[in-house]
């Protein structure tokens, strides 16, 4: 098949538009959250099985939150590896407030405290990295974090990181799969404000 100049230019234009649209969509809902959003007041089970309110779990620390589920075999292991790299850098810079990582399950029907413990163990999570599972439907928390209605399909969840200040307020959303250094920088900033 021979390509005419017009067909070739049309193909290039369609490809460029698709890439630009994907990149634009990837950055919508990133950066500072204004006004700040209170953490959803939901019950969660931590990885030890203790029932707690999510704001209580977040309060008093600068916290980076990722959404995941323990049965995920696509992006969740990548997110875990990224938090593993972040964990290594948490102690390099101190702040006025402690820093913490939280893996928040979006599959309350499939995840248990035991499966969360196992997932954290596989990711080599240390004492500053916790896990929690919503007691009921995770759609509300996903919606609050993303700032929009979530996709109903668990496998298509976001790979953003959500940052909470010590008052348990959402104040920053990262782009998809952020660099560990960027996560550390935002946490350092929040720990000093």
From TrEMBL:
Q: Does the keyword Disulfide bond apply?
A: yes
The record's keywords, sorted A to Z, are: Copper, Disulfide bond, Metal-binding
Q: State the SUPFAM superfamilies in the record.
A: Thioredoxin-like
What Pfam families does this protein's entry cite?
Answer: SCO1-SenC
UniProt record similarity statement? Belongs to the SCO1/2 family.
List the protein's name: Protein SCO1/2
Keyword Signal on entry: no
**Residues the entry annotates as binding Cu cation:** 72, 76
Q: Which domain of life is it from?
A: Bacteria
Q: List the disulfide bonds.
A: 72-76
Q: Name one GO molecular function term.
A: metal ion binding
The UniProt entry, under Gene3D superfamilies, shows: Glutaredoxin
């Amino acid at each position: 098949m021979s390509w005419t100049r017009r067909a070739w230019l049309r193909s290039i234009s369609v490809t460029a538009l698709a890439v630009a649209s994907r990149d634009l969509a990837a950055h919508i809902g990133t950066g500072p959250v204004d006004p700040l959003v209170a953490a959803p007041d939901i019950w969660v089970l931590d990885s030890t099985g203790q029932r707690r309110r999510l704001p209580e779990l977040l309060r008093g620390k600068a916290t980076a939150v990722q959404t995941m589920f323990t049965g995920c075999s696509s992006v969740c292991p990548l997110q875990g590896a990224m938090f593993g790299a972040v964990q290594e850098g948490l102690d390099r810079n101190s702040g006025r407030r402690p820093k913490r990582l939280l893996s928040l399950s979006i599959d309350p029907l499939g995840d248990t405290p035991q499966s969360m413990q196992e997932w954290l163990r596989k990711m080599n999570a240390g004492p500053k990295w916790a896990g929690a599972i919503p007691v009921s439907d995770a759609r509300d928390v996903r919606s609050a974090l993303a700032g929009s209605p979530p996709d109903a399909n668990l496998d298509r969840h976001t790979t953003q990181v959500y940052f909470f200040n010590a008052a348990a307020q959402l104040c920053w959303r990262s782009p998809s799969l952020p660099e560990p250094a960027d996560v550390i920088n935002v946490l350092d900033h929040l720990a000093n404000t």
